Amino acid sequence: MTAATGAVVTIVGKQHLAHTKVVVELDHIDISIQGFHALDIEGYGQTAIRSSLQNIGRVPGQQIVIGLGHDPAADMGQCVDGIGPGSYVVAHIDGDKTGTTVAPVIQLGQVDIGTTLESRMVVPDQCLIINKAGWVVYGVSHGHASGETKNIELSYRTVYKTTSGRKIFDQIMKSDPVTLELFKNALFSIADEMAVTICRTTYSGVLRDNMDFSTAFTDAQGKLVAQGLTIPLHLGSIPTALESVLEHFGDDIGPGDVFVMNDPYAGGMHLPDVFIFQPIFVEGERLAIAATISHQADVGGRVPGSNASDSTEIYQEGLRIPPVKLFSAGKPNDTMWRLIEKNVRIPVQVFGDLRAQLSACAIAEKQFMELVKRFGKETTRFYMQEVIDHTERLTRAALQNLPDGVFEFEDWIDDDGIDRDQPIRLYCTITKQNDSICVDWAGSSTQVKGAINCTLSFTKAVSYAAVRSVLDYDIPCNEGLFRAIEVTAPPGTITNMVLPAACAARGLTGFRMGDCAFGALAMMLPGEVGAASDGGNSGLSVGGYDSARRPFIFVDFACGSWGGRPWADGVQGNSNMFANMASQSVELIESQNPLQILRYELIADRAGAGKYRGGVPYRRDYRFLEDEAVLQVRSDRKKIRPYGLYGGRPGKSSQNMMNPDSDAELLDSKLTMTLRKGDVFRHELPGGGGWGDPLERDPQRVLDDVRNEYVTPEGALNEYGVIIDLQALSVDKQATCDLRNSLREARGDNPLPDISWSDV
Fold first, then answer.
1. 3-state DSSP call for residue 361?
2. Where are the domains of the chain?
3. Residue 435 near residue 484 (C-beta atoms within 8 A)
4. Which pLDDT value is given to residue 38?
5. Nearest-CA neighbor of 52 among 131, 117, 137, 116?
6. What's the rounded Cα separation, in Å, for the pair 754 and 756?
7. CB distance 66 to 135 below 8 Å
C-alpha cells in the first residue's frame, strides 16, 4: 500500500459484541463516538483509537459487511498509526464474495451494491475502510507524517448482529460498567418520570387511578431502550407502532414535530389506546424519541367508552387515527384537534388526557437534554445502544440456562360475546434452543366476530412479557430482549387479526394468551411458573347522559388474583402481571360518577386449592343513579376455569349478575346492555388456580386462611382435609391427619394431573 505509506489513519469504532459480526445499513448516516479506549486486535497488539465527528452524507440502500483481517505477507511499509506491518483491511459489500484486498479505501460515491473492491487506492479525505470479517465501520483521515490529521465521521442507521465463528476483536469500544449503569438508571428514571407526570396531570380515572397508560424511550431509529413502570403489554407494542410512523414520514421529521396514532392496522393495539411520539433533537440531529400510550375514556364509535365486546368490525369502534402530526415544527395541527373534538363524547376529558401525554414528552425532552449535557452527545448515543446490547447479552446468557426443547400448551376463551356456544382455542408452542427462543401461536382459533381479536404487535408484547418473567430479574425490557425472542402468529387468527376484525376488547385475549404462554413455560420449568390467573383485568364501562344532557363515561378495570406459585400462594387484590394496573377507589368512583359502590369484598372458597392456593377474588356491586346508561362488560373464565398445576385445583368461575338482592339475573361474561336508575350490577372475578397437592398444604396456613375469611371451615374440610375446632379456632391435628390419610388411600396409585381444569 505505497500510496498510504506515511499517512495517519484514524479509526472510529461503533459497536462490538464478542463472536458477533455487524451489518451496517448505510441509508441514514448519523453516528459518531467520542471517548474511545484501545482497540485490541487478537494477536496483533493494540491500535489507539481517535474520535472524529461530522456527518458525511447519504448512501441510500447500501449494506456493507465490515471487519479487520491479517495478511503477514502484505507489505505495508512503516506502521500507520499503530497498525503494524502485515495488517490489512478487506472490503466486501452486500454479497457472499470472498475476495480480499490489501488496504482498499472506498469513497462513498464510488460504492455500488454487490461490488467487491480489489484495487489499491490512495487514501482520500472522506472514505470508509471495510473488511469481510464482518465487524466495524472505520472512519479514515490522512495527513502528514508529522501527525497532522484530518478527521471524518461515520454513521449508521441500523446495526444487525449475527453469529460469527471467528473472534476478530476482543473489544472495539470498551463500555465502562459504572458509566453504563449510571446512564441506564438515568434513562429509566426519565421514563418513570414521564409516567408520574401522566398520573399527576391526567383528567380521567382510568389513567389516574387504573393507571392504564405507559411511557418509554427509544433511540433515533425507534428501538426501545427504556420503559416506565407501567404496562408490559403496551411497551412491547411501541416499536411496531413507532415503525409505522417513521416509515410513513421518512425524512419529514424535524424539531417540534409530535405524532399521534391509534390504528391497530398501522401498529396500534385498539382504538382507545392512543400513542403520542415526540422525537428529540440535539444540535439538529434526532437522537431519541419519547413515547407515551394512554387509554382514552372515549374515542367515539357505537357505544360510550368505545370498548364493547360485541362490535363486529373495526369501523364500529371509534375514531381510527393513522400516523399523523399532532404538532408540526411546534405548531399544533388544528385540523386534527378539531377532528378529535367532533368524534368523541367527552372532548374536555380526552384533551386533558392528551395534554398529559404531551407534558410527559416535554418532561422527557428536558431531562434527556440534561443527560446529553452531562454525558455528551456521542457518549449518550453510544450508551443508548449499549443499554440495548447489554440487555441482549444478559438475555441470551439467561436463555442458555433454560432447558432446550419444545413445550406446548392449550387453553380456551369462553366465547367472543356473539357466538356464545363457541369456545375459542389458544395454542402456544415454545421452542427453546441455545440462546434463543421462539413463541409460536399457530393452532389458535381463526379471528372471531366479536371484538376480542389481537394485533400481532399485542401478541408479541404478551410473548415478550411471558418469557421475560422466567429470566433473571435484572434484565431490562427493551430491544435487546426482543432480539432473542422470535414471535410468530398466522395472519387471520385471533392472535394476528386482519381487516375488518374488531379488537376493542382485545385486552381479554392478551391476558388469556399470557396464561397460555405461562402454561407452556410451566411445562419447561415446573418449579418456577405458577398456575393460571383470574384471566386478566375485567373491563367495565358505564356511559350516558345526565338530566342536563351532559355526557358521562366511567371506565374501570377490576384487578383480581394470581395463580398459586411453586413457592407461595397466589396474590389477591392485585393486577394481572401483564397489566400492572390498579383498581379505582370507592371514594373517587362515587365522587365523580353517577354510581354508588354497595359492596367491595373478597369472596371465600373461590380460590383454587393447592399446596399453594390461588389468589382470592373479589366482588363489586355498582348501583346506577342516573336515568339511563349503557353498560359494557369484558370478562371471561365463566365456563373455562383458571387451571391448576401439578395437583392444584382450578379457581372458581367468574360471575356477572343484575340486581343480586332482588330479582337476580345471571348474565354472560361479555355483554352490552341498558342500565336504569336503581339497577345494581355485580361482578365477581374468578379465583386463581392452585399449585400442588391441597393435602400437602400446611394445616396452620389453612387455619390462617379461615381466620382471614379466605376459606370457610367447610372449605378447609372439603378442599384441604383440615378439620377446624371452631370453639378454640384451632386445627384438630389428629383428626386432620386421619382424614388426610384416608383421602390419600382413596386416591390409590392414581397420579395427580399436571393440569387441572375441574375438581374431578
1. helix
2. 1-174, 178-392, 530-694
3. yes
4. 22
5. 137
6. 7
7. yes
